[in-house]
Amino acid sequence: MTDTMKCPACSSEHAYQDRDLWVCPECGHEWSGAADAAADTAPDASVRDANGNVLADGDSVIVIKDLKIKGSSSVVKGGTKVRNIRLQDASDGHNIACKIDGIGAMNLKSEFVRKA
Fold first, then answer.
1. SS3 110
2. pTM score
3. Per residue in 51-81, pLDDT tens?
4. What three-state secondary structure class fits 38?
């Protein structure tokens, strides 16, 4: 019997099937093979705000807390409304590109904004 499934929790190659579930002997994680395969084919790549709402290009958002600007003494105050955002793929987590009045162009993390 050849097992081709890897554990989604620890990536162990020693997972085995027990009836309808797959079991990892190293970390004890159990999962359904059918649900795991469905999750791999349709990942949720949408950008969500702090409340879990899906964001899209052109939306307006509100900053939920004061954010220090790196390399400057300026601060983006909580409650600042940002209009016409652009979503981007960023490895550092700054997935919103925008222009803030009085500050200029900058990137924000979606976890610090809510949809307006």
1. helix
2. 0.62
3. 999 999 999 999 999 999 999 899 999 999 9
4. helix
